[in-house]
Amino acid sequence: MTPNLDLQLQVAIKALTDTILPALDPSQRVAAEQLHLTVATLSMVRQRLPLLASAEWQILAHAIELARAIVELAPNPAFKELIERAATLLTEPNPAPGAQVAITRQISARISDIVRDPETSGELLRLVVSGSEKLCDYARAWCLPGGFETDPADAARLGSLIGD
Amino acid sequence: MKGKALVDADSERQSLTDEASISRLRERYPTEPEIDRVLTRKLRYRDGPGYSAVALDVVAKAVQSLVRARTNGPVTLSSPRWLGGGASKLQMAFELEWEEQGARQRKSLVLRMEPPEAIVETSRRREFEVLQAVEGAVPVPVCRWVDVAADYLPYPGLIYDFAQGVAKPSARPSQQVTGIGTNFGPGLRKELADQFVHDLAVIHTLDKARLTGLASFEPVIVGSNESVRRQVNWWQRVWQEDCLEDVPLVDVAARWLFENAPPIDHVSLVHGDFRAGNFLYDEESQQITAWLDWELAVLGDRHQDITWTTGSHFGHYAEDGVTFLASGLLPVNEFYARYEAASGLSVDPQRLGYYRIFNDFTSCVHMLGTAPRVARGGKTHQDIVVGWLAMIGNVVAGKLRQSLAEVI
Fold it and tell me: In this predicted complex, what is the ipTM?
């Protein structure tokens, strides 16, 4: 009765791997490469899907933390109001789909506007750089299955953020 | 608050395809005229259809029309087939017979063509000019014809000789796409490293006479940082045009790069994507047979290539687990020393620092901005590759943040 996306992904991966890939003409190299990547992408989605809600929440929390530090340095009533709306959303037990992502993007857009303002101080730019660390680390942790991290120690550290 | 699906959040991003927005971007981020032309064209076509598979026979007929128009003689094309391996361009290999100055020619050739939008939007005209400039200096395919405006081809493209060779060892295939992180193995590594360093030194010290044909490249002046700022503008503009979500770190990088652009001390032809994955070599002789993917070539500072090729996402650790190999070939400090000896040019730590940030900035633009945009729009023939590669952007953003923390 309950939706089971994991099952759907599992069977899709199996069909691609066990039935479609062996039937592919080996000379079709472009198709083969795209098929391998399709399997890798679906496998990653399957691995990460249970964590998606938590990830959206965590990323919004990091964005709010940075935004609060910025308005403390450079007060802005409109930005403060946006942050408070975001903070309220963070406490909702059942937020609407995509709501947290949408407001995270609004916060990022506002911070980018501030960075691009020629009047913005070096101190505030430093704050954006240091305050982006948690967001960067989380995004890297999320994308570990891509296999693009070259340092095993870094990969291990990041993996602990997301429970890998 | 009513929530929206991610796809709606993506499409909410202002499209910037109206003429007022295009004008504003062109004015705000002045860059080289040919780059401006390419980026403006991209925006004007953005609202058009995504990529639809083009039949091989359709492309083959188009190639014949192009070559007939350029040579005024009979043309016969056979064995057309799609090539894989790259991330940004459609590539078709084929056999061609044509007439040149009364003599019958027969060659294996490659058509390199843009999809509606690519992971990097670049100029076929510039690529054609660069390939002609370096021909004979380093191994590159001979460039035959270009169709800048897609008068004959479905999309702008150029045609060059098919180069034999492989990008990665047949026996040790890379697990990653586009040759990233290729492990050549200890034996082959040494042989390739010699040629790798030598060829880069040659490119950076090309005779000025070879550069006179680069008509669509703006001149670069020694002692000025104007050309560097033009490049920063180029990628800032691409970021503004393409990103589906703001990343404040990228804006910080853009600002720092513009404000701290160093003057050029020596004008080099810069490949722009010089790394393992962009050369072919013969497995038996272990000789590099062709350097490919010159679409990001610029006139500028050699440190742009030096820091690109030593980037962490293009190399890997050696068998000892601690020595990082630039492009999987040689340790970074050894690379610097051998490059200096081969080129007679210095490797300057300060410029390395600047261009490390510059390259991480442009990589973030490609992977966090353009890649999601074009994949979401269904604009390429391999959205799955582009979508996968986009994840590199998060790794690079982490490195960028660390570098910025040291300088700001």
Answer: 0.95
